[in-house]
Structures are given as structure tokens and as C-alpha cells.
Design brief:
Blueprint lengths: L2 H10 L10 H23 L27 H12 L3 H11 L3 H21 L3 H19 L8 H15 L8 H8 L8 H10 L1
Helix pairs in contact: 2-5, 3-4, 3-6, 5-6, 6-7
């Protein structure tokens, strides 16, 4: 291999070779893994108060009707979202679709957040998990940022971290995604479409 070609490949892959073992690069990988694990645990902890099949709600799935007339579990925060959402269209969707169907929509919300947590903790299809996290965190920002005593930057920072995970999929470092990407490498076994899909999701 010519010197020019080697230098060109090194420029395109700056973290390979000796650079990948530099302390600063190892620290960066450690930070990425630590961040995805902590955010994954955060999503897990937020499932504890909305365990199915009741999702922490009263027996009749009654939702909160004001900041001072609150219920429990998912019905509490969904009701507040129907009151305080900053976008009228979003507020109408919550009140006219989500709340009347909360007995089964609760399953969708619970499984979606569980999916986010699993993708981050295990580092599997982490880019897809990050995309779903962006959507859910944005939903929470729109729906709950105007609730009294809520710190809207909680949801803003969750969006920012999810965007970073989408742009730099964290499962490629000490995650299942690393194995998937080796198995579905370009030019390897499998259809080109499947290889492209797997590598995008990871």
C-alpha cells in the first residue's frame, strides 16, 4: 500500500490504529458508555410509577383535571398534559384520543419507554432507540413544560442527549451494536438492504 493511500485512509478513520488507544479517546468512549447507561436507567426508573395494567391510575382511569385536582400515575401526568400542553393541536390530541383510550394507550407508552431503556442499556439498535427518545422527550417538553413548578430544561436536556446518541450511536462501544455491525459489514453475507438497515439502526 502506498504512503499516500495509507495517509488518506488514516485521515478518513482518525480513531483507528494508534489514535484509538490514546487516553483521551478511551476517556471519550468511557463517557459515551457511562452516559447511555445512566440515561437508560433514568428511563427505567420512570416506568416504576406506571406499571401495567393499571399504570398507577385509579380504577376508572380518571385523569387530573387541574393542578390541584390530581389523580395518580400515568393518569395524573396525562391529565396535566391535556391542560398545560403549549401546542393547541397537541393538547387536542391528548384530550380527544390519548385520555379516552388510556387503558390501552398506557401499554404503548410503557412499552415505548421500556424500548428506549433497553436499547440504551444493552447498546442494541441504539440509534433507533435514540430516535424514539427524541420523539418522546419532545412530546414531554410540549406537554409538560408549562406545568407549574416543572423545570422545562429537564426535558430539553433529555432531547439534547438523545440527539447526541442519534448522531453518535453509543451502542457501538461496549454494546451489542458493535457485534451487529461486524456481522452485517458491507460486502459480507446478507442482502444489501438488510446490511444498510442494520448499520443505520446501530
Amino acid at each position: 500500500m502506498s504512503t499516500d493511500l495509507r495517509e488518506g485512509k488514516q485521515a478518513l478513520n482518525p480513531v483507528r490504529g494508534q489514535d484509538a488507544n490514546r487516553p483521551s479517546d478511551r476517556l471519550g468512549r468511557f463517557g459515551l458508555v457511562f452516559a447511555r447507561l445512566m440515561i437508560g436507567v433514568l428511563w427505567i426508573t420512570q416506568l416504576a410509577w406506571k406499571i401495567p395494567p393499571s399504570f398507577g391510575c385509579p380504577a376508572n382511569f380518571a385523569v387530573s383535571t387541574s393542578y390541584t385536582a390530581r389523580t395518580t400515575g400515568l393518569c395524573d401526568w396525562t391529565g396535566l398534559m391535556g391542560i398545560y400542553s403549549i401546542l393547541p393541536l397537541h393538547r387536542a390530541f391528548v384530550n380527544n384520543f390519548v385520555i379516552p383510550n388510556l387503558a390501552w394507550m398506557g401499554w404503548f407508552i410503557f412499552l415505548m419507554e421500556l424500548f428506549i431503556a433497553v436499547t440504551l442499556i444493552l447498546g442494541v439498535v441504539s440509534r433507533l432507540g435514540a430516535l424514539v427518545a427524541i420523539l418522546q422527550a419532545t412530546n414531554l417538553l410540549i406537554g409538560l413544560s408549562a406545568v407549574p413548578n416543572e423545570w422545562y430544561w429537564t426535558y430539553g436536556m433529555l432531547i439534547i442527549l438523545s440527539v447526541l446518541f442519534f448522531c453518535i450511536p453509543p451502542g457501538r462501544t461496549f454494546g451489542i451494536d458493535a457485534s451487529l455491525r461486524r456481522r452485517f459489514s458491507p460486502g459480507g453475507a446478507g442482502s444489501p438492504f438488510l446490511v444498510t438497515l442494520v448499520r443505520w439502526l446501530t
